[in-house]
Write a structure and sequence with these properties.
alpha+beta; Nucleotidyltransferase, domain 5; Substrate Binding Domain Of DNAk, Chain A, domain 1; 6-stranded mixed sheet; 12 helices; about 30% helix
């Protein structure tokens, strides 16, 4: 994607909180404040009357509205074509709700730095192509030229290495460092192993879970308190959405308090009745132990896939607000044999992703000789010195007949996940039947053997095969993954040399008409 005239920012579009940043003229990434003077904005949308939309409403403002007017954690629904919110007789998609959050951050930041045109937006590593397209669409609806989608842990690691004064320094000794980035946000989780020198930045392995984050820890407390309330008063607050919203807010505060205290009082109210509890950190850690174990299993798997031996990591970096839970630090110290870094100096865990996105945007601008944000020649040259390489987060496969049962289709992996990109591979297959007139190639994303458990991201056909082509005739399939994440596939029937191909380009999940309609609709809503 080409840059347009105007300023460029990096945006962390989070499940519970979002932030926006840019690289300053001095080469330092800076978070841009919202209208409330905060560097993070709650990813909560209140759909009020008369087209009034409030992004990040206060608890007092939210409590005045019915629960069905408030949308939270919409990031978990990105790319879900079956999810929508009905508002003013219109069906609002996850892309549109997310666009309202982006629009709010954009207009707040513009009050400080002027018009913003371009943006790099981050996503969890484990977002598949459909979710990435949805994120790009949200940016377009919000009036942004989305020049790239970058993975959150990659962005955080860029920020870490840049802020240490190491990245882009060709004058330094080219000594490699291997670090693990543990990114536990409000709604998603990633763990990534990166190896970098002052001029080379390379992801070794990654994995994660788009349905695991701090809100799941909060929900455990909320469910526990609601159960205790129901037992004591024989009234179940779980049947009342507004009551559960109040319970959840109290339990979220309790969770945060337990990061610094070992015991806290917790009080909830429902229908004139009050339940007061003394809640301990040990209670909390016990009821959420399985959630933490899921992150531990993923961390150990990624270390294994990266080929990194325990104890050889140079650093373990914590990213995301949910890493403030003490149990996270304790677990990682056990797994990695190294104390994690919570204090990154000028870099705060909840701001690292947006600031890394801003650095990535500046690197892209420097490569285009744009001289972003009036940067000095020294900073621009430093940005141009950074070479990055990534891995794919999901395997790419092709639907073929099972060797054991020709009537059954399986997903044959062509490019395994965590392959260094760019990547190119060719494999030979055979036709299924005699006199076959065409070959239909299905491109699948996912690791499951069952094609129905994967996501089909494209397909194409070789037509007009030679007459009397026998069964078992050879067909060569080639998959390519370029450095920008574009996927290409080609197939060649070798007897007659007929070729067909396709390229999966992340234009949009919505149609152009759909994006245009949502862009027009967004202009009708007053976002506060």
């Amino acid at each position: 994607m080409k840059f347009l005239d105007g300023q460029t920012v990096g945006i962390d579009l989070g499940t519970t909180y979002s932030s926006i940043a840019r690289l300053g003229a001095d080469g330092q990434p800076t978070s841009l404040l919202n209208a409330d003077g905060r560097n993070i904005t709650p990813s909560v949308v209140l759909l009020g009357d008369d087209g009034q939309v409030v992004v990040g409403p206060t608890f007092e403002r939210s409590s005045q509205e019915s629960a069905d007017h408030i949308v939270e954690a919409v990031k978990r629904q990105m790319g879900n074509k079956d999810y929508f919110v009905v508002y003013q007789n219109k069906k609002l998609s996850p892309e549109f709700i997310s666009a309202l959050i982006l629009k709010k951050m954009k207009q707040d930041a513009e009050k400080a730095i002027g018009p913003i045109t371009n943006a790099v937006i981050t996503v969890p590593y484990y977002f598949n192509d459909v979710r990435r397209k949805a994120t790009q669409d949200a940016g377009r609806i919000a009036g942004l030229n989305v020049v790239d989608i970058i993975n959150e842990p990659t962005a955080a690691t860029l920020a870490y290495a840049w802020m240490k004064g190491e990245l882009g320094r060709s004058d330094l000794k080219q000594e490699a460092k291997t670090i693990l980035v543990y990114d536990l946000g409000g709604g998603t989780f990633d763990v990534t192993v990166v190896r970098y020198t002052p001029t080379q930045f390379r992801v070794l392995a990654t994995d994660g879970d788009v349905m695991l984050g701090g809100i799941d820890w909060t929900k455990r407390i909320t469910d526990h308190v609601a159960e205790q309330f129901a037992r004591k008063f024989n009234e179940d607050p779980r049947q009342d959405p507004e009551a559960m919203r109040d319970f959840s807010a109290n339990c979220e505060d309790a969770k945060r308090a337990l990061s610094t205290k070992t015991q806290i009082p917790l009080t909830v109210y429902f229908r004139g009745k009050t339940l007061s509890l003394q809640f301990t950190r040990k209670d909390f850690e016990r009821m959420t132990a399985d959630l933490l174990q899921r992150t531990r299993d993923t961390t150990e798997l990624v270390l294994q896939q990266a080929g990194v031996e325990i104890g050889t990591l140079h650093e373990v970096v914590l990213v995301g607000g949910s890493t403030y839970m003490p149990a996270v630090e304790t677990m990682l110290a056990e797994v990695c044999h190294r104390q994690p870094l919570r204090d990154l100096g000028l870099l705060r865990p909840e701001e690292a992703v947006a600031q890394g996105a801003a650095i990535h945007a500046a690197i892209l601008e420097a490569r285009e000789n744009r001289g972003a944000a009036g940067l000095s020649a020294l900073v621009t040259n430093r940005l141009r010195s950074v070479n990055t390489s990534d891995v794919n987060s999901h395997s790419l496969g092709v639907k073929v007949s099972s060797p054991a049962d020709k009537t059954k289709k399986i997903n044959h992996i062509m490019i395994p996940k965590n392959s260094q990109i760019p990547f190119n591979v060719s494999q030979k297959f055979v036709t299924n039947s005699a006199n076959q007139k065409s070959i239909h190639v299905y491109i699948l994303e996912g690791d499951a053997t069952d094609p129905d458990a994967c996501t089909q991201i494209g397909d194409f056909r070789i037509l007009d095969l030679p007459a009397n082509l026998p069964a078992g005739s050879p067909v060569e399939v080639t998959y390519s993954y370029d450095a920008n994440g574009r996927i290409s596939a080609a197939a060649k029937e070798l007897a007659g040399n007929r070729v067909a191909m396709t390229e999966i380009v992340r234009h949009s999940g919505l149609s152009e008409q759909g994006i245009g309609d949502f862009e027009a609709l967004a202009k009708n809503y007053q976002v506060e």
